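Summary for the funding panel

The consortium committed to producing paired sequence-structure records for every protein in the target list. Below we show the first two records in order, beginning with the earlier of the two.
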Amino acid sequence: MNNKERVLASLRHQQPDKTPYNISLTQKAHQKMAEYCGDPDFEKKLNNCFLIMGTAPRDAWRETAPDIWSDEFGVQWNRSVDKDIGVVCNCLVTPETVDDYCFPDPTDTSRYDTFPEQIATHKDQFVMADIGFSLFERAWTLAGMETILMGMAANPEFVHRFLDRIMDHNLQIIERACAYPIDAFRFGDDWGQQTGLIMGPRLWREFIKPRIKQMYQLVKSKGKRVVIHSCGKVDEIFPDLIEIGLDVFNPFQPEVMDVYEMKSKYGDRLSFYGGISTQKTLPFGTVQQVRDEVRLLLDKVGKNGGYIAAPAHDIPGDAKPENIAAMLDMLNSQ
């Protein structure tokens, strides 16, 4: 089986010959591993199962000042500390200006013009188009976290209107991206923290669920699978996500949920992507502890498919290179 065939079998909840895996690293972790391996191009040789294609237009990111990067929405990110994402340092939308904000053009062909070549040259990988910061996250990056959360309680009309505008923008991108022979559409939208949903389940079901349902159903109507990346403890809404058509949940953090219990409860209806500890084992564990954790995940969560092995997030800079190497060795030696 090639990597695409392994993913497809796993998502059918069938046992592939090997559990597919996908590894991504932060810039700091990449630098440390390149030095450890003596190979700056080591990441190209990881044999990842996914090809993930962003849907931002060409030249979407611009450095407008030292360590300040502007995205296609005009959001400015201070990357003086966090070089991978950064911290939002401007505000573009208020309740008074929600209808005035001008969204970037979803019909810009540069969003999709590399798709055919990428798909053609990665035929052995499972191909996903991707919108990061797809709804709640896009709202708070534009208007501020406090404004969105307070608005859910005190100014719901504003939040409903704003989320509808974001959803409508996304639906146009989904429609165009799914015209290509991709396998899935991935959404990024962090709803969780270490102890539960940021806005709580009632507000999530009022503001988030109806809109992601429309986005998921559009993807499903095109014959593609749906993948969500949402950090934190959000397992209380797994039944909701299954109900509206989710196929794959990521990052599946073992620090905030019992991954073996989640597999037992939902593994016949939902596939999981992640699970290897980035908060504990990779940075603080021993090589043997890494090997034991990966082996247990492959044996238990990977049994009968429904699993893509991966670190629970992009590998952080404090992960030990020898632990990353041990993880890779376990994944490759199946």
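The next record, for a separate protein in the list, is shown here:
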Amino acid sequence: MRLAALSRRCALIAAAAFMLAPAGAIAEDWPKAKPIKVIVPFGVGSATDIIARVVMDEVGRQIGATVVTENRVGASGTIGANAVAKADPDGYTVLVHSSSHTVTPSTFSSLPYDPEKDLAGVLPLANIPIVVVANSKRGYKTLSDLVKAGLAKPGSLNFASAGAGSATHLAAERVKLSAKLEAAHVAFKGSSEALTEILADRIDYYCSPIDAAIELIKDGRVTALAVSSAKRATSLPDVPTTVEAGYPDSGYAFWIGAFLPRQTPDAIRTRLHAELVKAIGSPAIAKKFADLGAEPLTISPQEFDAMIKSEIASNAVVVKAAGVKVN
């Protein structure tokens, strides 16, 4: 009992010392004190996981720090996000999340953290176009072909997502709303499972991150019908955007970005931002991004925060209009 009490007392003293330590002193030690833990709220091999590892490993080399990536999967990314929101704000726990971060406030009736108040944006690392794909055996050549088939038999189509409330889910809902299409949502754990079902011809279509589907598209096993980004993807220049295909307000920006606990000293947030910008600007990362179909996006932390706020509001409108089930 005495040891337990002493342990608790030491923990309280340590916590108090951290809170009382000048922010400059904490920032000055970063990143020398200990390894940097990067939490990814999605599975290994997901677009978010790949970008996180590629970029943060480069940051580790730049600053001479050990970077350890940990996948904390579940609840549409909220488990991993909550872990970082509740972590010590010392710069040693980083969240790399996707744009689904701005969807979950609308698809969950309550969250154990506040996406805006508890997490600070550092940098959106990359935009990754989402591509609408279908099994090539279906014979669809364009997004309109798919939509016409669905409108001819209302309720006959289904679509996959990498989880309810995920970016792939909301991208599909935007297309549905614009096309006035009825289609049943089937949620999976990630793109790998969703694409497996597309290949097995058990799912009609999937709004996939381009990096996950690009090889299947090149092999001719799935057909790229449209991309949901604001402009055509550099890796699929002949594939139109969903808006170009004739469906206004159907676009969806899928990005992957880095976050820190909100109370992290500004000096650390600024330093990490600079290192991330340097990393994604390097020739090695530029090539890897090109191979993945990813496009770098460099804005300030403050601009990223403003983007988050705006997207939370706009996604709430789409979730309500689409009648997406709230957890």
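Regarding this second record: Residues 301-322 form the longest helix (22 residues). The mean pLDDT is 90.
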